[in-house]
Fold these 2 entries.
Entry 1:
Amino acid sequence: MMEQFNQTAEAIIVSAERLIREGGYNGFSFREIATEVGVKSASVHYHFATKSDLAATVARRYTERFMVAIDDAMKCETNVRIVWINAFRRALVEDGKMCLCAVLGTTSNSLPVSVQTETRRFFECALDKLNLSGLTETQSVHILSTLEGAMLLSLIFSKTSVFDQAVKELM
Amino acid sequence: MMEQFNQTAEAIIVSAERLIREGGYNGFSFREIATEVGVKSASVHYHFATKSDLAATVARRYTERFMVAIDDAMKCETNVRIVWINAFRRALVEDGKMCLCAVLGTTSNSLPVSVQTETRRFFECALDKLNLSGLTETQSVHILSTLEGAMLLSLIFSKTSVFDQAVKELM
DNA sequence: TTAAAACTATCTACCGGTAGATAGGTAGGT
DNA sequence: ACCTACCTATCTACCGGTAGATAGTTTTAA
């Protein structure tokens, strides 16, 4: 089950996720999060000792939430590809932001190890899940790559239609 | 033709490209570049007035170089898909880094406008070139998305084989 | 021809501001 | 009494950017 945090810690995680998805690991600060949440930066340190602790927690949370969403969707829709396309599409359209782990992943080699590990775990979990859905490993890697790339192009052009176009060939 | 810079400015661009590809727009500083190049940070400002000026120049250079490489490769190999796969593969294997414009693109909405514009231009140029090679727009968007995503996954897993696996289905 | 003016490329020294992180204190609940 | 969750205050290190000086080179013009 998902690790529990109190109200302030939860608000910090939500704020941090948004800021990382917008500006990457180097694009958020304790002070900015503190202001958003309504506390002082020292209080953010009380809940998360270091920046890497916070980012790693955010990434783990993101992965857990994403994988639960996939499992839920699989209860209603048997076509694996449709489930995954919709999951990424929702992350793009509802949040208007990139996948958290894609943002972190592009700068993977400059991240603290704990954050790097959590980022990689997202992709490991995703590939495991795809493989267990009856796809070959090659198909899984191809689908996941295309989905992340489609999100990127769609965000850059600010057009959801680009995402839809990119993933059309996955079906 | 490509804009000319003197030796120091060229070294600054090379250094900045490497640092941005490793840590994103917020992951490089005038001081770090200055140290690498062997001058003081004030001298970097002499060649590039602001951080966004430098990043925009780096992105424009990257795009020009990439598109020239595609044109060159098309002289020897007629299969468009092979040309593009090899171009991305080389950027990944030889540099061991992500595509510059993918790194910048993931945080697109938090970039200075000039950098955002240059980043988008890379993808516009790429799609134009693909479209002019006899592919449909849907095919072009799909290929470019998959290539960027394949680079990302390959980098995260530190395995070139992941790239090869992801793009196998493009052929 | 040569002296003055302008330009290039760098330096040192500094600005206000922000970064992550820490020490130590306080109010309220159990 | 202790623990939780905050606070104020502070630290060192670094950020992007600017001012002003300097030495060497090039252009201008008497």
Entry 2:
Amino acid sequence: MLMKKLRKQTLDGNVETLLLAILQSGPSYGYAIVKELDKRAEGILRLGEGTIYPVLHRLEGKKLITARWARAENGRQRKYYRLTPKGRRALADNRVQWQMLTEVMEKVIGPVAKPVPLALAIGDVL
Amino acid sequence: MLMKKLRKQTLDGNVETLLLAILQSGPSYGYAIVKELDKRAEGILRLGEGTIYPVLHRLEGKKLITARWARAENGRQRKYYRLTPKGRRALADNRVQWQMLTEVMEKVIGPVAKPVPLALAIGDVL
DNA sequence: ATACTATACTGTGCGCTGTAAGGTATTGTT
DNA sequence: AACAATACCTTACAGCGCACAGTATAGTAT
């Protein structure tokens, strides 16, 4: 068989994936990323700056993103992070890892109750 | 609003959930749990004994499971673990936490490619 | 002027988790 | 007698999330 295995990093390390995913939409900076995450997570998850900045530095160290200082229109100094090709590959890989993790979790603890009213409605119609 | 938040333990700590879920089917012992996980994960995830025993001990320390030595039919000494009511509650809670994590992940990194060709087919039809 | 709030980045340090590595002992099979 | 499978355990390490604390600037309200 010789199937692909879950790396240990995937059991946790999801925050890195989240940040990479956000940077996929284009370069951004720490503070904005916090706000963006806050918006997308809709109150379920709240990651503070103390969480995100170290991760950004780690990602930079791994060459998955690059940093560049720039002065914004409002005169503020911002450190813009951008995905590298290597980071793009890492993101793709992380997605696969995440998918495998959900597979394993579903197989062991059972499927999660999904809010999919559309499918239900379609099912009712058909 | 005041919504429920993801606890930090849920970002990792999935192994505890896996073990609790397996013990939900009834009492078991370390070695058997390794094999059971191996079977259910179908090669995707491989947790060694060095991973599982410390977790079992931790769970016992948290009073989520209880341990009892017993001699099996084949004469071997086995340490059987059983879910406590508190462990049952923790498992239920962990499921909710896991569900929230998948929600956040899907919102940020997009949906996982699930083997659900039906939805695609329906979309094509409509 | 003064105080406050929002913006924006940084660093330190703790605790928990996963797990590799190594070890012991028993039973069954070759 | 040798080996594999069963069954358990401990030690030690590294990585991750995150709370906490600190610095500095721009804009707004009093």
